[in-house]
């Protein structure tokens, strides 16, 4: 079951500059910075009440963020929905005809299992599903 809009991912060219910008905008500093090597990104997270923003800077030219910045420029890159059972949601959405981009959930940032749906099947919006890792 989808339970929540967990975060909005924003692709940026210069994470340090965007951290300053969002700190001024939201009047709170980022609560976390984290590199996710497998995705070729460095992230930082802001939280205002229930709202979370993830800023993403590319760390390699073949990162999805580098490709996105080349094609579309800075801006909203994905919407991440929290789910209570990511494996079950991946199965359900595949059966509904969505293109699930991962065979199994992978480790994302901020202690989450994540997977993605192809934007061509979701009205041009890249969708991330995420579930907290409990170990
Ligand atoms: C930090 C970890 C995690 C978290 O915990 O929160 C993250 O958020 S990681 C975020 C970065 N990782 C990903 O985005 C992984 C999922 N993405 C992908 O697998 C790929 O980017 C893709 C969506 C399959 C596209 O890859 P590819 O086909 O190689 O790239 P193209 O540049 O050729 O794009 C094809 C097509 O898709 C459009 N596109 C690409 N990205 C987006 C996007 N974010 N939103 C909307 N549309 C997107 C792209 O414009 C191309 O369209 P056309 O030009 O019309 O063909
Ligand atoms: Co994300």
TrEMBL record:
InterPro entries: Glyas_Bleomycin-R_OHBP_Dase, MeMalonyl-CoA_epimerase, MMCE/EMCE_epimerase, VOC_core
One record GO biological process: L-methylmalonyl-CoA metabolic process
Signal sequence interval, chain numbering: none
Keyword set, alphabetical order: Isomerase, Metal-binding
Domain VOC: 4-132
Keyword Isomerase: yes
Molecular function per GO: metal ion binding; methylmalonyl-CoA epimerase activity
PROSITE patterns: VOC
EC identifiers of the protein: 5.1.99.1
Protein origin, superkingdom: Bacteria
Family to which the UniProt record says this protein belongs: Belongs to the methylmalonyl-CoA epimerase family.
UniProt protein name: Methylmalonyl-CoA epimerase
Organism field: Spirosoma sordidisoli
């Amino acid at each position: 079951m989808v339970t929540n809009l967990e975060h909005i991912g924003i692709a940026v060219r210069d994470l340090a500059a965007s951290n300053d910008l969002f700190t001024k905008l939201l009047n709170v500093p980022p609560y976390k910075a984290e590199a996710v090597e497998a995705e070729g990104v460095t992230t930082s997270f802001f939280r205002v009440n229930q709202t979370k923003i993830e800023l993403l800077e590319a760390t390699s030219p073949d990162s999805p963020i580098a490709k996105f910045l080349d094609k579309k420029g800075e801006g909203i890159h994905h919407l991440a929905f929290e789910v209570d059972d990511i494996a079950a949601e991946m199965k359900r959405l595949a059966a509904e005809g969505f293109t699930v981009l991962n065979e199994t959930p992978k480790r994302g940032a901020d202690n989450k299992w994540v997977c993605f749906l192809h934007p061509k099947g979701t009205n041009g919006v890249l969708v991330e599903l995420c579930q907290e890792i409990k170990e």
